[in-house]
């Protein structure tokens, strides 16, 4: 993308800061470019293994959010899964992935994700509400038979 032209010399921290800034300004297309660039540098470039797993997990999670907002659910789930693989005790991507599983009607996977979220953070209110709603909808589906 044009936004990244001539920015090759940015170190990974600066890229991540810029991504976060654009994300908070809701400039999602630009933010996604910076997250993608950061992820690439952290996983393939000369910075490989120098980027903190937590930063990488955040980048994947936030890029997943951008994909979720434009209704690219399967791509978003891939990013949430990559976030989890980089930081297994990070509850937010489990919750985010659970929401998509729920929306797609994959109630068993949604329940697993919400339970994992609550294991990691018992005070995550939205995850508890989502878990309860998923159980209600799963039971209703089983009673209906479809």
What is the topology?
Blueprint: H1 12-24, H2 28-43, H3 53-69, H4 73-86, H5 91-103, H6 107-120, H7 125-144
Report on the structure:
It is elongated, with a radius of gyration of 17 Å. With 146 residues, it is mostly helical. The N and C termini lie far apart (45 Å). The chain is built from seven helices and no strands. Helix 6 runs antiparallel to helix 7. The model is unreliable at 4-9 (pLDDT under 50).
What key phrases describe this protein's structure?
146 residues; mainly alpha
Name the structural class. Answer: mainly alpha
Distance between the termini: 45 Å
- As a percent range, the share of strand residues is under 5%
Average of per-residue pLDDT values? 90
Principal-axes shape call: elongated
Low-confidence stretches: 4-9
Radius of gyration: 17 Å
Can you summarize the main beta sheet? Answer: none
Helix content: over 70%
N-to-C series of helices and strands: HHHHHHH
Number of strands: 0
Number of helices, counting only DSSP H or I runs of 4 residues or more: 7
In brief, what are we looking at here?
By secondary structure, this protein is mainly alpha-helical.
């Amino acid at each position: 993308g044009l936004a990244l032209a001539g920015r090759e010399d940015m170190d990974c921290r600066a890229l991540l800061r810029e991504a976060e800034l654009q994300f908070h300004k809701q400039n999602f297309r630009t933010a996604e470019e910076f997250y993608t660039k950061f992820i690439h540098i952290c996983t393939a470039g000369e910075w490989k293994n120098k980027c903190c797993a937590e930063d990488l997990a955040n980048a994947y999670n936030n890029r997943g959010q951008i994909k979720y907002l434009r209704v690219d659910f399967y791509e978003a789930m891939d990013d949430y899964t990559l976030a989890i693989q980089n930081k297994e005790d990070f509850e937010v991507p489990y919750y985010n992935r659970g929401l998509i599983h729920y929306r797609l009607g994959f109630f068993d996977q949604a329940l697993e994700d919400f339970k994992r979220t609550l294991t990691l953070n018992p005070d995550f209110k939205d995850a508890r509400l989502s878990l309860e709603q998923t159980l209600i909808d799963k039971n209703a589906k089983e009673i209906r038979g479809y």
